[in-house]
Design brief:
The chain has about 375 residues and is of the alpha+beta class. The longest helix has 17 residues. The strands form five sheets. It has a four-stranded antiparallel beta sheet. Strands 5-6-7-8 form a four-stranded antiparallel beta sheet, with helices on one face. One of its GO terms (molecular function) is ubiquitin protein ligase activity. It comes from Ceutorhynchus assimilis (cabbage seed weevil).
């Protein structure tokens, strides 16, 4: 067993494991070949006159099939005194088979990244935070806009050398349009300037969404991000509206979708239809939205108490007994005034499918799980 010390020194990542109910071993791990760790797995198949036979179980995918076949042939022809001997034999063969790995030289990119980052921090003196990762793979920065909102961005470095535009904005919290994607650039200052210009352009949008968050009861998103251009707003018991804003044209009339029983939706829909002609581009967009809906202010949802004894809290799905499913709120409300239970589309669709409900075009109809009156939901793919 004197070879074991040499085995550990030469192949520290190779492990030996005894095969159950046998005196043979399984050999697996990595050996260093031409500056790269190569995985290999062998199985001891026989011991004849103190010498062992081995079988190749697996070879690293970096090698083609012909190399694996050659090693299998070597193992079939020869026997070995110990594990170290067979590994040395395979290692020697792989050294001849595997061409020398050409390690990519990123020195020029490293120099450029360091230079660009240095110029970047000198140019933008009002940065709140900035950091160049230790491996030079990315830059993170944050800045405060004219209304004291903080915006963060992550810029990654492309080391593939396919183009000179090595800097690319990869993470940010802004609404995005296909035609307005940030294009990679070789100049860090120019790229960050594009980000700042986008922030400045979106100031009216930020103002409006913050006004929604301050002055309405927002049901969804639960924790709004700046990239969320919609708000589901509580209008009363069993009725809400989803207001979707065009971030890049906030003065355009927003899109409204009402959720609730038909008799409740009808009143708001009538107000909206009657006031559409009065919409004009104006500075106070929030007031314009109130005027469209025929409201002086958005109603605030009262905080309910002593609900811990209820099976289902207000707004929760009456099938899964939860408020959110896959980050979505219930969208279907029973039209029966004595019921008006909430359901997720997914829950109600599954309920209908299980009961062989009737499908007509893109909708499926069945009995409400609570009151058994007819309700419907969209057919889900």
């Amino acid at each position: 067993m004197d070879y074991l010390l040499d085995l550990v020194l030469q192949y520290p990542l190779i492990k030996l494991k005894a095969i159950e109910k046998s005196d043979k071993v399984l050999i697996r791990g990595k050996m260093l070949v031409k500056n790269k760790d190569i995985f290999i797995a062998l199985k001891q198949t026989a011991i004849i006159n103190g010498r062992s036979k081995y079988k190749l179980i697996k070879l690293d995918e970096d090698f083609n099939e012909s190399t694996a076949i050659q090693i299998k042939q070597i193992l079939e022809k020869e026997s070995f005194q110990n594990v170290l001997e067979v590994l040395n034999k395979i290692h020697k063969h792989l050294e001849t088979e595997k061409p020398l790995i050409n390690l990519e030289n990123h020195c020029e990119i490293y120099r450029k990244v360091i230079h660009e980052y240095s110029e970047f921090t000198k140019f933008f003196l009002h940065l709140k935070t900035s950091k160049l990762l230790q491996d030079l793979s990315a830059i993170t920065a944050s800045i405060t806009d004219s209304n004291y909102r903080e915006h963060s961005v992550k810029i990654t470095v492309d080391f593939t050398q396919k183009t000179s535009d090595i800097f690319e904005i990869s993470e940010f919290d802004l609404p995005q349009r296909i035609q307005d994607t940030f294009k990679p650039n070789e100049n860090l200052i120019v790229l960050f300037d594009q980000f700042l210009a986008r922030i400045e352009r979106l100031q009216p949008y930020f103002d409006l969404m913050e006004e929604f968050d301050r002055n309405t009861t927002v049901l969804d998103p639960e924790k709004p991000k700046r990239s969320d251009s919609h708000r589901r707003i509580w209008l009363g018991e069993n009725i809400s509206t989803i207001i979707t804003i065009d971030p890049y044209n906030v003065f355009q009339r927003p899109n409204f979708k009402f959720l609730g029983p038909e008799y409740l939706v009808e009143s708001y829909s009538n107000h909206l239809n009657n006031n559409l002609g009065n919409w004009v581009c104006q500075e106070n967009i929030f007031q314009g939205i109130l005027d469209l809906l025929g409201l002086e202010d958005f109603p605030k949802r009262p905080t309910t108490k002593n609900q811990h004894n209820l099976l289902v809290d207000y707004g929760e799905c009456s099938i899964c007994f939860s408020l959110r499913l896959n980050e979505k709120l219930p969208e279907v409300i029973c039209t029966n005034k004595r019921c008006e239970k909430f359901y997720h589309n997914e829950c109600l669709y599954g309920w209908f499918v299980a009961s062989n409900a009737k499908i007509v075009f893109n909708a499926i109809s069945g009995n409400c799980p609570n009151c058994e009156k007819t309700i419907s939901c969209p057919v889900l793919e």
